[in-house]
Amino acid sequence: MASSTIFSSPSAILSSTTTKPSSSFKPLLPIIQLPFKQPLTTLTATVAIATILTTTPSPSLAADSYQVYYGTAASAANYGGYGGNASKKDSAEYVYDVPDGWKERLVSKVEKGTNGTDSEFYNPKKRAEKEYLTFLSGFRQLAPKDAVLNNLALSDVDLQDLIASAESLTSEEVKDGKGQVYYVYEIDGVGTHSLISVTCANNKLYAHFVNAPTPEWNRDKDMLKHVHESFKTVGSN
């Protein structure tokens, strides 16, 4: 190729300086300098732009975003079987955050009447990664922490299995800014992790669960903890 002839034959360049070029002869020097005509500042700007494009995160990689769910905790007799109505803010008894992209599982009237499940959302990419809330009427205050967890397990087979196979189980009592008491449990089971928050308000016991298989827990730990901590009751007595 022409470029290889120029660079591999420096003697040709030297000899051209002593021979008068013909009218059709074009100097070789401009051809040699052509790749270096771009200003240094332009090259610097190009590199800077490329660096920005490769290091600036896209909007899809930004912090997780959430939607607030408003739960009414309606009794089975007044329940239509549609998992509650998230638009009824005025009648909400509790709230929690739902990650964008998660789907609501419709809770049947029968299920609501048997184990008190009021609402549930799950990750469509991994249905076992989910959050749900159950409630029981007729509770004005919390019993001891161990008793509360065991009583919840009576109507939740999955929770029974999780407790039975737990590698570790921790519990603590916390109070919010209004002095309302919450029991917080963290269960690390065989292949599954669970965060549970339990409180009493409005003459009811509310239990909010966040469950995930271990791989999803390790991947989404911060997001799942946020969801867990977002639960609170509304209009507490």
UniProtKB/TrEMBL annotation:
Organism: Clitoria ternatea
Residue span(s) of domain PsbP C-terminal: 92-232
GO cellular component, one term: extrinsic component of membrane
Chain intervals with Polar residues compositional bias: 1-14
GO molecular function: calcium ion binding
GO biological process: photosynthesis
Region (Disordered): 1-22
Protein name: PsbP C-terminal domain-containing protein
One Pfam family, short name: PsbP
Signal peptide: none
